[in-house]
Amino acid sequence: MNSFSELQRFRIRWAWAAVIVFNLVFLYAIGQQIIFKIPFGAKPAPDYVLVLIELLPLSLLIFLFSIKLYTHYSKEGITFRFAPFHLRSRKIEWHELASISFRNYNALYEFGGWGIRSGNKQTGKAYISSSASTIGLQLQFKNGNLLLISTQYPTELKARIDNWTTEGIINKSF
Questions:
Q1: What total number of domains does the chain contain?
Q2: Which of 54, 72, 150, 169 is deepest in the core (most CB within 10 A)?
Q3: What is the pLDDT of residues 124-164, one digit of tens each?
């Protein structure tokens, strides 16, 4: 068991539904006015304006598709990238940490939502990509800062970390 990698996608259903509905409304307007030549609304906008306005919900849809949390756990440490916000991967080496543990969390209550989040002094910072999981890896750095990284496979990740702890690579008790 040398490493463990995970790819988490943005899976907040209400956000996807809102953006898809927004897109469908404008695609309907474009279809009605440009293709079927029926004015959309009492004071229809010019065709080019409808197309320009559709670029906003379309770009939101593309943006939602691009949100991904890449995590890679190895004997050296944790490498992660929250695309499209991080241009480069970030690395945390095991020796930088005072403690690690798995814990349940409530993204909305503790951090105010999903994404790259800052909580309070008791919760610290978090990288949460989805509502699909409510379990994360809680990291406490030697300087006292906290970081939570969400995981959709806590059992598998815990098995790897326990194995590295047994091998003496990670000092879990610190």
A1: 1
A2: 150
A3: 999 998 877 899 999 999 999 999 999 999 999 999 999 99
Query: What tokens does 34 get?
Result: 């440009």
Write down the pLDDT at residue 58: 96
CA 105 vs CA 9, 21, 94, 111: distances in Å:
18, 30, 22, 9
Containing H/E element for 159? Answer: helix 154-166
Provide the whole-model pTM: 0.87
Owning domain of residue 45: 9-67+93-174
Q: What's the burial of 144, exposed, middle or buried (CB within 10 Å: 0-12/13-18/19+)? A: exposed
Contact (Cβ atoms closer than 8 angstroms) between residue 111 and residue 67: no
Query: Residues 6 or more apart from 107 whose CB is under 8 A from it?
Result: 113, 114, 117, 126, 128, 131, 134, 150
Q: Is residue 81 part of a domain?
A: no
Based on the number of CB atoms within 10 Å of its own CB, is 82 exposed (0-12), middle (13-18) or buried (19 or more)? Answer: buried
